[in-house]
Amino acid sequence: MTEPVAPVAPATPVTATGPQVILQKIYLRDASLELPNAPAAFTKQEQPAIDVQLNTAAQNLGNDNFQVTLSITITAKHGAETAFLIEAHQCGIFVVRGFPNADEVEAVLGTYCLHQLFPFARESVADLIQRGGFPPILLQPVNFDALYMEHRNKRAAAAGTTAPATTH
User: Is 107 inside a domain boundary?
Assistant: First the structure.
């Protein structure tokens, strides 16, 4: 015989205090694959030279919502001939609230959010390369914290000020 179970009261919503970063959505906004020298590119015996470029952007959508974009461009060349060109724009929408100043919000967008997007961008790029008939390229992890600090220091040097030290 089973015991009657007492009804469970609905959970009260937990309201966090302090800084919050909430991932709302991750999506591939744009992706392209170009094979300008196919099929000749597939007959080359040597490995192509690979160039990887990363760019980032953050857009304030209002109400503490931000779109963060990680753009990756990969160019593979055999000498002067392009074997393939891939571009992927991986985006995420994040709620960022409760941070005491705009510099901290900028740091979160320029580091933490990009770390969240990178695995998705890496997978998208590897898939595009394989669909183009080439062996996949595994992009190595990126230290967005170091890149952000480098960018911030360059910006401060250009403005003639010293960037305050921060820890993450």
Answer: yes
The range of the structural domain enclosing residue 137 comes to 20-156
In a domain, 13, yes or no: no
Residue 8 has pLDDT above 90, yes or no: no
Dihedral angle sign, alpha carbons of residues 38, 42, 43, 45: positive
Helices (H), 46-143: 102-110, 112-131
Which residues is 57 bridged to in the sheet? Answer: 69
Q: What CATH number is associated with residue 58?
A: 3.10.420.10
Other CB atoms within a 10 A radius of the CB of residue 76 amount to: 22
The Cα–Cα gap between 19 and 95 comes to 10
Residue 167's pLDDT band, with cuts at 50, 70 and 90, is very low
d(CA 168, CA 88): 28
CA distance 153 to 147: 10
Q: What are phi and psi of 115, to 5 degrees?
A: -60, -35
Residue 14 lies in a domain: no
Q: Please check the confidence at residue 111 and state whether its pLDDT lies above 50.
A: yes
Token pair for residue 145?
């914290």
166 found inside a domain: no
Written as six digits, the tokens of 142 are 């990126």
Specify the 3-state DSSP secondary structure of 136.
Answer: coil
Number of domains in the chain: 1
